[in-house]
Amino acid sequence: MSTSPQRKHLLTLLSSLVIAAVSLPAAEAADEGAQLYQDKCSGCHTIGGGAMVGPDLLASTKWSESDLSAAVKRMEKNAGPMTAAEVASLVTLLQDVKVQERLKTQTAEVSKNKVETVEEPASGAEGEALFLGRRAFKNGGMACVACHAVGGDGGKLAPDLTSISDKMPEAALASACQNTSFRLMKPAYADHAVTRQEALHLSRFLTEAKGRPAGKNKKSVQALQYGGAFAGLIMLLIGLGYRNRNTGVRAKLSRRK
Questions:
Q1: For 120-249, CATH number?
Q2: Per-domain residue ranges for the chain?
Q3: For helices 196-208 and 99-117, what crossing angle results, to 10°?
Q4: How many CB atoms lie within 10 A of CB 60?
Q5: Helices marked H in 118-217
Q6: Domain spanning 5-117: which CATH class is it, in words?
Q7: Segment 154-206, tens digit of pLDDT
Q8: How many CA atoms lie within 13 A of 171 on its CB side?
């Protein structure tokens, strides 16, 4: 029995859809570990890129499944709760001989998607303004300089970020800034999320900050620190004023009695 051209075309189209439906979940599953690593681990660790806030994980790729699972579970105190499936996905990623290749692919994909959806190109100048507090974050987060330094100027509570781009590519930096997965950053930005656009500005600034001479931001940092100290002094004076006022009111009431 002959088959009409239209019928052949329809059968071909249906076959293609079936193949795509079968292949898509497998592709997503293959990238799940890389996405999890990007979201939960890349802010503190590299795989073959050297130590950051946490150790380089290259050696751990040779560990047994049970040891890796236990290590990933211990990281929940920093990265947040993970399901058994997510732990298993990260373990599978770390044991994959192509782990670095998968992470590079994931980073490139994240970068591509973010570039396509941002409102404006990443700007190092805008990132510097956000980092130093000269421009406020959209959702009210505190300036990065309160904890971090660049070029030796800034806070000492967290690592100096002058050379962070040696250990993290720009797309990974943007992800770390936006996801705020670091232990100290997590509570500080829980209700003050960094936007994607802001993260891209910050990552561009940090990428351009390598080799930045010390002292360039000294005046800006000092102004921010002085401003914080002045605000604290004002709050203290207000508190003392209210305390004295309450004391005076209580004294008057006592005399009336």
A1: 1.10.760.10
A2: 5-117, 120-249
A3: 120
A4: 17
A5: 124-132, 170-179, 185-189, 196-208
A6: mainly alpha
A7: 888 888 899 888 888 887 788 888 877 676 777 788 889 999 899 999 999 99
A8: 15
Q: What is the pLDDT of residue 231?
A: 45
Tell me how far CA of residue 40 lies from CA of 130, 172, 219, in angstroms: 23, 11, 35
Instruction: Write out the DSSP string of 169-192.
Output: -HHHHHHHHHH--STTHHHHHTTS
* CA dist., res. 100 & res. 34, Å (int): 9
Q: Which residue has the tokens 């990260």?
A: 90
Q: Minimal CA–CA distance to 178: which of 156, 202, 162?
A: 202
Establish whether domains 5-117 and 120-249 are of one fold. yes
What are the DSSP calls for 239-256, one per residue?
A: HHHHHHHHHHHHHHHHHH
Q: How far apart are CA 233 and CA 223, in angstroms?
A: 15
As a whole number of angstroms, the distance between CA 138 and CA 213 comes to 29
CA distance 42 to 45: 5
Q: How many CB atoms lie within 10 A of CB 208?
A: 15
Q: First CA to last CA across the chain, in angstroms? A: 112
